[in-house]
Design a protein that fits this description.
By secondary structure, the protein is α/β, with parallel strands linked by helices. It folds into three domains: about 25-195, 3-Layer(aba) Sandwich (Rossmann fold), CATH 3.40.50.300; about 195-265, Helicase, Ruva Protein, domain 3; about 275-340, Arc Repressor Mutant, subunit A (Orthogonal Bundle). The protein has helices at about 25-35, 50-65, 80-90, 105-115, 135-145, 180-185, 200-210, 220-225, 235-250, 255-265, 275-290, 295-305, 305-320, 335-340; strands at about 70-75, 95-100, 120-125, 145-150, 160-165, 170-175, 190-195, 325, 330-335. The chain has a five-stranded parallel beta sheet with strand order 2-3-6-1-7, covered by helices on one side. A two-stranded antiparallel sheet has the order 4-5. Strands 8-9 form a two-stranded antiparallel ribbon. A hairpin with a 6-residue loop joins strand 4 and strand 5. Helix 4 packs parallel to helix 5 (about 135-145), helix 7 (about 200-210) packs across helix 8 (about 220-225) and helix 7 (about 200-210) crosses helix 9 (about 235-250). The longest helix is centred in the middle third of the chain and has 18 residues, at about 235-250.
Length: about 375
Amino acid sequence: MTPYDPDPSAPGLGPGGDRLVTAAADGEDRAVEAALRPKDLAEFIGQERVREQLSLVLQAARQRGATPDHVLLSGPPGLGKTTLSMIIAAEMNAPIRITSGPAIQHAGDLAAILSSLTEGEVLFLDEIHRMSRPAEEMLYMAMEDFRVDVIVGKGPGATAIPLELPPFTLVGATTRAGLLPPPLRDRFGFTGHMEFYAPAELERVLHRSARLLDLDIDPAGAAEIAGRSRGTPRIANRLLRRVRDYAQVKHDGRITPEIAAQALDVYEVDGRGLDRLDRAVLDVLLRLFGGGPVGLSTLAVAVGEESETVEEVAEPFLVREGLLARTPRGRIATAAAWQHLGLTPPAAPPGPRPPLPAQQDLFGLPGGPPAEG
């Protein structure tokens, strides 16, 4: 079996070699999301609990005539954290400033942004867990007291100049809430965790997107796409655009379940949302290693990828789907993985070697060890 060798021009990969089923956003996704993004909470689909709780926070702030508490949104990418931040600004009729944690590597970067905020403005900080530690410490005081101390000069002559800030609302988004230090996490007045979408919710998302894109989609066609979207609206919208292309070129433009299935087969996204990388990991694990256990580095070498790629890109969805499990001894495939690839598991995995009988030497001869002479 040949190792998995990703080809940027392969149909299963998006522009620049990105996977079609990745939840990360590229330039095209951002442009389309801007057109498809709901403008208020009533139009936002899914995340019922977070939406209800956030609605109470915003309504109470409007009644008091005050800025809302700082908001932390956590969860996997592609579920609507950026959209909710824009909705918060729209609901409060306030401007929004968008930046990200990796872009703030010095306290001075954050001070420049905070000092230019206007009263009531929403500051959206994506991937907030990747912000530098000096900037984090400056953010503590800014969130709690609406004040920052700007250090002027170096060494013994350095002077701290206090800078008062207008009241603002910080909306932080993170895919790894556990990496946030407790002092920062505790300063958020509201924390919402975004969950993966159910297929029925994704169907509603697809029907809304198809209506905005002026597409003719059959309800069963939307269900076919939703079932392969990994519970993520961003992926669902991306697959919808690729199915639209196929239906436009190969057929009359109407998206039926048969056309949707044909299109996604062309892009190598199977019925459960697995792409070529996912299936390559499972195929190697099952065919070469009998279902495991096998170490991560060995598995990565067998599919021709880096260990980080297998661990962070392929494994999370395979584990969530119950196709792969992580154990202290290594990765193992589940019964569902054998069934999904149409393979038959071994009758009985080899067990440990039975111990030797009491009166038997290492060569299987009776009599035990020779007498000392």
